[in-house]
Design goal:
The chain has about 270 residues and is mostly helical. Helix content is about 80%, strand content about 5%.
Length: about 270
């Protein structure tokens, strides 16, 4: 089977599962099914998506991290983390919201196949740097989704009827606890990414460390999450303040890589 067909098959499987999860949400059985056969079925498109990423991210021994490939990798990691976390948290509703995004990200490389090849020679430092960065992006994607949903639920609490998709979300306190755990791990990974980039820039990228838009936005994001974690630990920051700081930090992170890559590749064709 060709890669194009595999992309379409992965898209279709994610989409079908998304519909099934939405229907399960409507009947109130999503969490039960998420821990059962329906949840385990997510492993099928996850494996296919992972194989496609492996096949397209490594081209002739070099790393391909074009915009759509990086986005696809981040959404794959996001689904993977949710799929694993479902054994410990009631996350069927969150998985329901992520599956359609994963479906789109799985088919984008087939629609926009242009590659962005890193010319750096393969090395353990470079692989570690990129892996830490992608894991951090994925965790902060989850954190941003959590924060947005927490804000939405808080606003809807005073309404007589809650939308069906929001009725099966975990309690706000559980969501908040998970939010700060995800941010904490993501912050550690982002710190490793930044420190490794600064200390080993010559070995990783082939040139000394230098200021550019990615470094500036990465450091801004790191600073925002550092302040948030300190504020939460020392002053008990939570609720809307936590949501606003989380979304601000995530916005800087997106601008640092995905935003700049989108402009360079889509508009400037570079």
């Amino acid at each position: 089977m060709s890669n194009q067909a595999l992309h379409l098959l992965t898209f279709a499987l994610y989409a079908v599962l998304a519909v099934l999860f939405w229907r399960a949400q409507a009947t109130g059985k999503a969490e039960q099914q998420n821990r059962g056969a329906l949840g385990f079925a997510v492993a099928v498109p996850l494996v296919l998506h992972g194989w496609l990423l492996y096949d397209t991210l490594f081209i002739w021994g070099a790393l391909n991290l074009g915009f759509v490939y990086a986005l696809s990798l981040i959404l794959w990691l996001t689904v993977l983390i949710y799929w694993i976390a479902r054994f410990f948290y009631p996350l069927s509703c969150l998985l329901t919201l992520v599956l359609p995004l994963a479906a789109i990200s799985a088919v984008l490389p087939a629609i926009f196949p242009d590659a962005h090849i890193f010319s750096q020679p393969a090395s353990a430092l470079f692989d570690t740097h990129v892996l830490m960065a992608m894991l951090a992006y994925s965790l902060f994607t989850i954190a941003a989704l959590h924060a947005a949903l927490m804000s939405l639920v808080e606003k809807r609490l005073h309404h007589a009827r809650m939308p069906k998709v929001l009725r099966n979300l975990p309690p706000l306190m559980t969501m908040e606890s998970l939010l700060f755990r995800v941010i904490g791990v993501g912050f550690v990974l982002l710190s490793i990414t930044i420190v490794s980039g600064i200390l080993f820039s010559e070995k990783i990228f082939g040139h000394p460390w230098q200021w550019n838009h990615k470094v500036v936005f990465g450091l801004l994001s790191w600073a925002v999450f550092a302040v948030l974690l300190l504020g939460h630990h020392l002053y008990g920051w939570r609720g809307r303040k936590a949501v606003h700081w989380t979304l601000s930090g995530f916005a800087f992170l997106v601008l640092g890589y995905l935003g700049s890559q989108f402009v360079l590749e889509v508009f400037l064709h570079r």
